[in-house]
Request: fold
Amino acid sequence: MGERIRYRKLYVLPTRGRSHQFSLPLKESIRIGKRDYPIQLKNDERFGTYVLWKNRKYPVEVVRSGQNSYEILFNDITYNFTVETPFSYRRRRTLTKAIQSPLSGEIKAPMPGKITEVLVKEGDTISSGDTIAVLEAMKMENEIISAISGTIARLYVKQGSTVMKDDPIAAVVSD
Amino acid sequence: MVEKYHLFSQTNFYLWFSAVTAPDMPVSAGGILNLRSGRQYMEIEGKSFRAFRERESRLKERDGKKEREKQHKRGKLTATERIDLLFDSGTFEEIDAFVTPCNSEADFGKVDKVYGDGVIAGHGKIGNRLMFCYAQDFNVMGGSLGAVHAGKIAKTQEMALKMGAPVIGLIDSGGARIQEGIASLSGYGRIFHNNISSSGIIPQISVIMGPAAGGAVYSPALTDFVFMTSHTSYMFVTGPNVVREVLNEEVSFADLGGAEVHAQKSGVAHMIYDDEENTILALKKFLSYLPLNNIEDPPALPSPGPGSRGADNRLREIVPDDPNKGYDVKEVIRHIVDSDSFFETSALFAPNIVTGFSRLNGRTIGIVANQPKVLAGVLDIDSSDKGARFIRFCDAFNIPILTLEDVPGFLPGIDQEHMGIIRHGAKMLYAYSEATVPKVTVILRKAYGGAYIVMNSKSLGGDFNYAWPTAEIAVMGPDGAVAILYRRELESAEDPAALKNELVQRYRERVANPFIADEKGYIDEVIDPAVTRQKVISAFDALRNKCVKAPERKHGNIPL
Amino acid sequence: MKIKRVLIANRGEIAVRIISTAKKMGIETVVMRTESEPAALYTELADFICEIDEGVAGGHRFLDIESVIGAAHKTGCDAIHPGYGFLSENAYFAHKCQEQGVIFIGPPPDAIYKMGNKTIARDIAISAGITVARGSQGNISHHEEAERVAATIGYPVIIKAASGGGGRGMRIVRSEAEMERMFNMASSEAAKAFNDPSVFIEKYIDSPRHIEFQILGDHHGNIIHLGERECSIQRKHQKLLEEAPSEALNEELRSEIGTLATEIARAVNYHSAGTVEFLLDADSNYYFMEVNTRIQVEHPVTEMVTGIDIVELQFRIAEGEKLPIEQNDVRIEGHAIECRINAEDVQAGFAPDPGRVERLNLPTANHIRVDTGVTEGSVIVPGYDSMIAKLIVKGDNRNDAVRRLKLALDKVWIKGVKTTIPLFRMLVRNRDFIGGHYYTDFLEKEVTQYHYNSYYEEKIAAWLAVRLFIRENWGDETDRYDEGESGQVSPWLLNKRLRQF
Reply:
């Protein structure tokens, strides 16, 4: 067949901010300025899995892994990454430019709890910042606020519904 | 063809020539001895070898810079690149690389003379196991399917069936080649027929990496699993243009038959990924769970041993005390199977049932689990279809089935009844009962009524049926049961609510628990959730050589 | 009368905290064990355990007056320490204890009642000569009335539950348009949380600091204060970090407000420990807020800088002893900061993240104190608050304390649940926080990202993702296939041969 596809680089895309580049084969070190600092992945009884870098231990845990998406809890902070090859990285950039989907989406429950009040109905027009529903969790009432302006296309909950974290509450279609 | 080219070492030259014996070639001892000398070499090249080289270079064109760019601009890879990604390095061998479209000489003149006719077919190793594959090349006449193109695919299918090796179709085709008319259509028919003859004998997988329209959608539909790539792949029987003409409805390609639509709504696509490379990487991972054919066992990894993980206390905590609260059954799965081994299929379609492959002590198992997090894990039309198809695949390919049950029943409602929940629910029942692979069930919580029987109950032939102490096995949920059993008492009670509460409580304690079923032998054991992994491993171990001889018949009549 | 055995009607870290002082004083301890936390640390440390079933109908037994007092009787306790939360500020409970001959370790029921009702408390403060922010005269029952009152005192206003605390039933209203919805929400939340829907309205002071004074009084009329605590790092009115002393007070102001705090206590014949809360605006005007008639979560910072064991004094006061110190004996040395490490996901809007604490390694040093009710393997259950531990660090001065806190935070090692540690890591690097320039809505207004984000940490995490990707996708799976099986003749072939026979 053709020349074998060989990758010299992999990109890591965080949900926000700039991407990180790693050349292949992957080195067991992280570069600061001109120096490489070795990085080690270890595991022991007292600390569980951890990374040893610059003489310091950092706790690490892989929370979720998809095909090329990873949720990594590193030093108590959650990172959501996708790992991209040069081609998929380029593709992602061309496609996001080409598709530019309308700002529609689902409003999801930020935490598990019970819906004590629903303030909108299907077909209502809302603007970003409006309260959609009230969620009672840990004995606190939390307002669920829409980050999108548009029309409520669908309501997934009613008063008294119990929701889990990330369950959809409403689907909003922007006009 | 760089790699193949390298294979022709000088000695191979000789072998090749002696086999073919080109007419003008002086096959003399001297000639062979001087083979390395420049003059002789030129002489060889000057004859038939030049034609050979020329053809080879024509073949290379299909993966030239221009062709690559064309596909890359669409966000796609070329057929060659896809095959490179899929197969172990240097193992792919192409067949029929130089066939040309059948009526390329015809006056129609619309068909270019292209080697290979828009499809690359062949075999190679994936994970060091033999697999067959065909990849349509969108750069050649839009990947359209002509008679020769179809013949290559059919040939691949037939070879795979003889060899007992899986077939993978990488589909990127505009549809039937109009110029070739009936010949093209008949080609589809042949492919479909082969799909069906191979069904249940070798795994067939379709990867949609571009359009698949019209009749072309039915070959993927007949295969066992369909992978799609987001944004660049579409499947529909009639395209948006026809929809506009006939129904006067405007619909985009993506909304009509994009990957998301098929993954979430129609259930046609089992797996979708963001880009082609990850689609192929995921496919390779997926293949590692499957056997090559219906006689072999799936490949096993060295067993970590049943005791490699101690009692897992987390399993005791996942099921909430409140029976009305949901939880994520996938977390239960992750705590039972080998770490990181769960590969979910049809994750987005009918999410109230979870299906997927996993490894248990190194061996592949199929998992069917009710998902209490979505619609309380109820069985409805879509989830019955999804479950039944998955169970039948497992049964056909010797993959033992683990069922994790927490099901409140079938989804009630006019909609469901009128759409035929009876027919669809029956599929699930049929699939479970028909399956002769090892079947183990763990009842996590609710197991009510008909749905309890459906979910691989003992009476359907479950080999080992376990229950957690949290299980509630009964004809119906406490509220419903109490309302029927004590209707009169409740009507005449002074405080019906209080009486109902008390009766519900009593029903839970006395009827809806796993101990009665245990004592009567309808389940094999009530187990501590923390040792579920160990229990299930030893159950499947005991069932390794399970052999059921079903009476001979042509085939059963599953309620489709 | 010496207390011989005490029932601790609480759980978690405060129960552990009380047990440790009781042990030091030779008092036997009894705790109540519930079904949802059968192996909690406090149950292991206590001398005796009293088993209780958790209530079926929602409410739980730490809130059930009859069963708590019943437990005290059954186990032969002569006193009950309520800790914080639950029944600690329930006047009826304190009264019931007295009536049933059990010492209630806390103020007299009358003081609890008066201070617990914010409307009465405000009137008392006014008559003691303390400024309070303008507000409604008494409770408000309808949003229209609320709109009228708000119009006279001017927006923004804050709605508070009359018998509230801890941020529940509290809403800030910035315009009349919001009033109806906010009022109804606050009222229903108050009804649910405190069984009392009554609310009142106050002028809302923008960017205030939360300053509270620890007071101690005995049965002999002596009342002193132990200086202030600054609790302005809050989110949705929940305190997250407290320190003592406050950067915002000088010695003069400290003594002025401190004296007023003792005045309020004196007005209700207060004894035991309590806290008088004030709001301090940018011009050092202070307004009385409320009195908490119990031990506070954040009491350790005061203990760290004064060297006084407040729980010990609570016991001794309850036994009828005179305060062993006078106001002039109270010396504040150094600076202490407390971080509340909660099982919350800072990046997901502080959503509770209950679960099992898989690993727990907390720093130890002379200047560090950790109060915790959990151990490795403990489960943070969703029903209770989500606190894992309180990390208290002391320094010679504030800068020193912040520096030590920064180091200590890097030594906290918790796995299994997400915690508020990233928030504190961010704070100790925040210029305004380091400079002591902050106020109660500082987090909401000035901070855009609630967690410390280091480029290199993100890079390491990204490196891990790449490593996983390579292992999962390009790791040679075939090397791992079980040799014992794949070495055999293919059954497909065997099948063919069999058929040929």
Chain B is about 40% helix and 15% strand. Chain B touches chain C at residues 127-129, 164, 281, 284-285, 288, 292-293, 295-297, 299-303, 313-314, 317, 340, 362 (CB under 8 Å). Residues 1-40 of chain B have pLDDT under 50 and may be disordered.
